[in-house]
Design a protein that fits this description.
490 residues, mainly alpha, Growth Hormone, Chain: A, 17 helices, 71% helix, MFS_sugar_transport-like, MFS_trans_sf, transmembrane helix, MFS transporter, carboxylic acid transmembrane transporter activity
Length: 490
């Protein structure tokens, strides 16, 4: 099957003398803003969950529940959230190819907004977990739809930078979540809202992205390339499984699916099964540090908890600053030297920096310079997922392939979360306050980054190549033919 260039898919280096942002029209910016906002609020939802998870479980726990049991169930809830995330990605990725990127993007926003808001009404661990699972369905669908929409809409000379910036802006959602928590904590302290109920209001705030759908759904159109495929009858027909059948029947797309899945899973597991629990290490080492400071008379004993929370907040904000810088640096390297080189640098940095951070972090001062480095190293490759994954698949399967690769990692991360909990118990010592079990389990889990590194030699380099697209209609209902050849260089 011949491979053609989609209308908006020229080489990365088109109009090299013109800044990428000057290639965008008003409508291009509108699409970029809506898709980026969908992902930004998606990340806001994720961070609200991380911040409210333990307070919610403490408030909803049956009488007599031990703190250790609350912490353990926190990982169970996280696993169910990730499983819902993965399932949602698989479902909405395929629906995005069949029925349109913009339509499905609006639907996923409504789903994650609605069920985040419904978490406000939780009365037990069961219904809280159910709400998080259902929220995950919407959260999981957004990424593949948003990046496919941008990749197929903006000029190719701006594609890499626009997709990288989408990921950079996701850090804004994470920082907004911290600001929301700080505001609600203040309202709890002054009695404006009931003490211990701040977590409910955090989830209610998560309902607000639904407003964006009301103001944008009529103007947001499908990409011209997708409409062309629809008019020519080249979209997958039949059940929701057909796009996946099309992917695995073709040697080329199947290879890209495996490569993309392994690369994306490496980063997702690294973040959710390792990096996500850095806050637990901070609780331990910061608590010990400020307790010692109180014993020396440098702070009041009553201020220990406040100092710990303030130090954690600053460490997280610095982590997000590092993440934003790391993702933009990854984007620059990917555009200049190629996707494989950027991923190689990113995974090596993630392995070394993450292991070093878990090994050496002892004080808040350590965290203030280690966490930005870990943010840059761990989250830098996430810009690559937005850039690289849509470059691996044709227009009729782009949303499916991108979503599958990115969200398969959610299932793996759910398993990684359980395995991390197992390793922590395996390394447990007689000292219940020791941070060593958490440190050892995290350092052991860093070996996951080797999977990404070992996959890179098999990954196709897409720099300087157009997005692959379908040109010939499927010979049998519901199935696209296996493509032959490779994209011509621009």
């Amino acid at each position: 099957m011949p491979i053609s260039i989609e209308p908006s898919s020229q080489s990365d280096n088109s109009d090299p003398g013109k800044p990428w942002y000057k290639l965008l029209s008003g409508y291009h910016w509108f699409v970029f803003i809506i898709a980026s906002a969908a992902w930004l609020f998606d990340c806001l939802d994720q961070r609200l969950f991380s911040l409210a998870r333990i307070p919610a479980l403490n408030a909803l726990a049956p009488a007599g529940t031990l703190p250790a049991d609350v912490q353990a169930f926190g990982k169970v809830v996280t696993a169910f959230f990730l499983i819902g995330w993965g399932i949602g990605g698989l479902i909405f990725g395929a629906l995005g190819d069949k029925f349109g990127r913009s339509k499905m993007l609006m639907l996923t926003i409504l789903i994650y907004s609605l069920f985040t808001g419904l978490s406000f009404f939780s009365h037990s661990w069961f219904d809280f977990t159910a709400c998080r699972f259902l929220t995950g369905l919407g959260v999981g669908g957004v990424f593949g739809l948003a990046v496919a929409l941008i990749a197929e809409t903006v000029p190719s000379g701006a594609r890499v930078q626009a997709l990288g910036l989408l990921q950079v802006l996701s850090t804004v959602g994470n920082v907004m979540a911290v600001g929301i928590k700080y505001l609600l904590d203040s309202l709890e302290k002054n009695g404006t809202i009931t003490g211990g109920e701040g977590w409910r209001w955090m989830f209610l705030v998560g309902l607000t992205p639904a407003i964006m759908v009301v103001f944008s759904y009529k103007r947001l159109k499908e990409p011209e390339s997708w409409l062309k495929l629809k008019n020519e009858g080249k979209l997958p027909k039949g059940s929701i499984l057909v796009p996946y059948q099309n992917l695995v029947r073709s040697t080329r797309w199947r290879r890209n699916l495996i490569v993309g899945s392994l690369i994306a899973s490496t980063g997702v597991i690294g973040l959710w099964a390792i990096g996500e629990y850095a806050v637990d290490l901070q609780n331990m080492v910061f608590g010990k540090y400020f307790t010692e400071q109180a014993a020396l008379g440098k702070i009041a004993k009553t201020d220990i908890k406040l100092n710990v929370e303030n130090a954690k907040t600053l460490a997280y904000l610095l982590n997000m600053l590092g993440a934003g810088v790391g993702m933009w640096l990854f984007t620059k390297v990917a555009a200049a030297t190629g996707r494989r080189t950027a991923f190689a640098i990113g995974f090596v940095a993630a392995l070394v920096v993450t292991a070093f951070t878990y090994w050496k972090m002892e004080t808040p001062i350590d965290a203030y310079w280690m966490m930005p480095l870990m943010g840059a190293a761990q989250l830098g490759p996430f810009a690559g997922f937005a850039i690289y994954l849509p470059e691996l698949f044709p227009g009729s399967l782009r949303s499916t392939g991108t979503s599958f690769c990115y969200n398969l990692g959610r299932f793996a991360a759910a398993g990684g979360s359980f395995f991390s909990a197992y390793l922590t118990k395996l390394f447990t010592t007689s000292d219940a306050t020791s941070s060593l079990p958490l440190r050892y389990s995290a350092i052991a889990m860093c070996s996951i980054f080797l999977i990404g590194l070992f996959t890179l030699p098999f990954a196709p380099e897409t720099k300087g190549k157009p997005l692959p697209s379908d040109e010939v209609a499927p010979p049998e209902p519901g199935f696209a033919p296996a493509p032959a050849g490779t994209p011509a260089k621009a």
